[in-house]
Amino acid sequence: MRLITSSIAILVLSVLPALADRPVTEDERAKLVAAVQAEGCTGGKFEFDEDDQQFEVDDAVCADGKKYDLKFDAQMKLKRKNLD
Fold first, then answer.
1. 3 state DSSP class of 23
2. With bands split at pLDDT 50, 70 and 90, how would you rate the model's confidence at 20?
3. 77 is a domain residue
4. Cα-flanking dihedrals φ and ψ of residue 82, to 5°?
5. pLDDT tens digit string along 45-72?
6. What total number of domains does the chain contain?
7. Which of 8, 18, 44, 84 would staple 60 via disulfide (CB 3.0–4.6 Å)?
8. 12 or 24, which is more confident?
9. Confidence of residue 83 (pLDDT cuts 50, 70, 90)
10. What three-state secondary structure class fits 77?
């Protein structure tokens, strides 16, 4: 019984991180592209982090030619800009 309980716990914990991010909708993507451009950046991979309730843009290239990870709140206001 203990082995089954441990196995179920491991399975649940391994699945949970996969649920943390979801792809953005087309409407969200359009708003994110505008928000990213307003920061002087382009491109990147867009996701919505369900846990933090924020949008993430990984590997956006900004005006200085460097790659950044950007985080926006639900109103597309920049919360964080980290050098990648």
1. strand
2. confident
3. yes
4. -115, 135
5. 999 999 999 999 999 999 999 999 999 9
6. 1
7. 44
8. 24
9. very high
10. coil
- Joined together, the tokens standing for residue 9 give 């716990």
pLDDT the model gives residue 25: 97
Counting every residue written for the chain, the total comes to: 84
Q: Which domain holds residue 31?
A: 20-83
Contact 29, 35 (CB under 8 A): no
User: Is there a domain that residue 36 lies in?
Assistant: yes
Distance CA 65, CA 20 (A): 30
d(CA 32, CA 40): 13
Does residue 1 form part of some domain?
no
- Rounded to an integer, the average pLDDT of 2-15 is 53
In a domain, 2, yes or no: no
Measured distance CA(18)–CA(64) in Å, rounded: 33
DSSP per residue, 25-68: PHHHHHHHHHHHHHTTEE--EEEEETTTTEEEEEEEEETTS-EE
